[in-house]
Amino acid sequence: MPTERTAGTRSMAELRTVIYLRGTDSGQLDDAEQRCGAYAQRFGWQIMGSVRDGNDDGELKRLLRNVRELGIEIIMTGNLDMISPEPSVRDELMAAIERRQCIVQPVGIAV
Would residue 91 count as lying in a domain? Predict the structure, then answer.
């Protein structure tokens, strides 16, 4: 039986997301962006924008500085290597994302 939503709670369909893609192959980035968009659409998430980085994480760091102000709750990406191919750097960036009460949602697997 459905329950009443309490004040301050939101449904999954109200979540705000940004697509973050990292790499230099525009074909792979286009494909990942399409997969992320379809995934978000399936859940009714609001896509607030898409960010593409070359081979560094400058745009991701800039996005992290503004995630709260933008109301972003999910950062979608093609795969975790797009956050950073270096595991220790990726772990640090993901921890920074989580400290901002945001999650990373990979859509797909690394190839």
Answer: yes
- Domain total of the chain: 1
Residue 2 belongs to a domain: no
- pLDDT in single tens digits along all 111 residues of the chain: 444 444 455 566 689 999 999 999 999 999 999 999 999 999 999 999 999 998 887 888 888 888 888 899 999 999 999 999 999 999 999 999 999 999 999 998 544
Structure tokens at 91: 């772990």
CA 37 to CA 58: how far, in whole Å? 22
Helices (H), 14-86: 26-43, 58-70
Domain that holds residue 92: 12-106
